């Protein structure tokens, strides 16, 4: 659906050129939730803003459903933007307008609806984001999560095909973040809406994204299905981002432990099977779980745990082979 082909963009500050993104190529499929992660200054906002031409790339092409958006006429671009919603970290609501008026604003701009149609659509959107009773309130009377719900309702007003999210949950507390992410996922599924979201938090990626791209200093360094990138990060910056969301040691030394240590990665239903117990019984070794996480990547269960094998009978090669039958990955950690 979206094909980004070798785009670059720089800014000029005090006569000095600052590259923001360099030679980025990406493909986003219709209906997926595509995440872009990177630390502050990596170029995420610049990249996502090129998708509705809030920033125009210096070079390269962006094709959406086959047509190059950088060549659209003014009218065509306005129409395209109407079908591309965007939400922001700081919500960008108009503080002098009520919730209802904020949501109505893009409908008015579209100039295609009667008053009654706009009223109906605003009510429909308020229901969708569960803000039924808040139509006549002002943004200042709302919590952060409620403000972002208004932002989402406004972004969806004209039935967009694409929703761009620039750090949409970064200003929210963890619980509110979860509820906004659930809402985004629900919208993605109900309406088949394509979502491109940028974040600096791997947990956001883990919760709702199908695929992810990692940006570092304007360059795309890694890209793939979320489970692959999260469980087997290749690039140093990706490892650092994963480590932040679920710390795990890479060596026995870092854990302050010696003896045979294994890091096991499970994905899917096997995550909930008593593998440790079975292998322990079969090989007559004990296991000490020294670190780990069990959770979900979107809906898929996963576990990544580090175990220490106990007892004289512990033969690392045999243990690794036994784990290898169940785990998607079994790494012996250097001690
Ligand atoms: N409007 C701007 N003017 C000048 N430099 C900018 C502007 N916007 C972003 N930059 C610079 O471009 C780089 C990428 O920024 P940005 O796309 O905002 O990254 P991110 O969203 O990942 O934090 C940074 O070095 C930033 O300072
Ligand atoms: Mg940004």
Automatic annotation (TrEMBL):
Pfam families (alphabetical): ABC_tran (PF00005), NIL (PF09383)
InterPro entries in alphabetical order: AAA+_ATPase, ABC_transporter-like_ATP-bd, ABC_transporter-like_CS, ACT-like_dom_sf, MetN_ABC, MetN_ABC_transporter-like, NIL_domain, P-loop_NTPase
All copies of domain ABC transporter, residue ranges: 2-242
Keyword Transport: yes
Keywords: Amino-acid transport, ATP-binding, Cell membrane, Membrane, Nucleotide-binding, Translocase, Transport
Molecular function GO labels: ATP binding
SUPFAM superfamilies from the UniProt entry: ACT-like, P-loop containing nucleoside triphosphate hydrolases
Record protein name field: ATP-binding cassette domain-containing protein
């Amino acid at each position: 659906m979206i094909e980004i082909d070798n785009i670059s963009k720089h800014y000029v500050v005090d006569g000095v050129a600052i590259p923001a993104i360099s030679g980025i190529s990406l493909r986003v499929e219709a209906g997926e939730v595509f995440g872009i992660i990177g630390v502050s200054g990596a170029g995420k906002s610049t990249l996502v803003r090129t998708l509705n031409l809030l920033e125009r790339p210096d070079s390269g092409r962006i094709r959406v459903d086959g047509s190059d958006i950088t060549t659209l006429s003014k009218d065509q671009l306005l129409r395209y933007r109407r079908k591309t919603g965007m939400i922001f970290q700081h919500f960008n609501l108009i503080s002098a307008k009520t919730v209802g008026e904020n949501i109505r604003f893009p409908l008015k701009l579209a100039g295609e609806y009667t008053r009654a149609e706009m009223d109906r659509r605003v009510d429909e959107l308020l229901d969708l984001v569960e803000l039924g009773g808040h139509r006549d309130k002002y943004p200042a009377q709302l919590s952060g999560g409620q403000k972002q719900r208004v932002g989402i309702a406004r972004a969806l007003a004209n039935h967009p095909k694409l929703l761009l999210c620039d750090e949409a949950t970064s200003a929210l507390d963890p619980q509110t973040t979860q509820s906004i992410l659930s809402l985004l996922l629900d919208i993605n599924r109900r309406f088949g809406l394509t979502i491109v979201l940028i974040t600096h938090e791997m947990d956001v990626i883990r919760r709702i994204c199908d695929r992810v791209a990692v940006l570092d200093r304007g360059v795309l360094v890694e890209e793939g299905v979320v489970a692959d990138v999260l469980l087997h990060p290749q690039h140093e910056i990706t490892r650092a981002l994963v480590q932040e969301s679920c710390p795990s040691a890479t060596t026995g030394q870092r854990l302050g432990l010696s003896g045979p240590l294994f890091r096991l990665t499970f994905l899917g239903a096997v995550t909930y099977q008593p593998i440790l117990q079975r292998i322990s019984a079969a090989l007559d070794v004990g296991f000490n779980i020294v670190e780990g996480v069990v959770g979900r990547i979107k809906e898929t269960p996963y576990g990544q745990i580090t175990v220490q094998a106990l007892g004289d009978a512990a033969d690392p090669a045999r243990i690794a082979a036994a784990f290898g039958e169940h785990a998607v990955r079994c790494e012996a950690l250097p001690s």
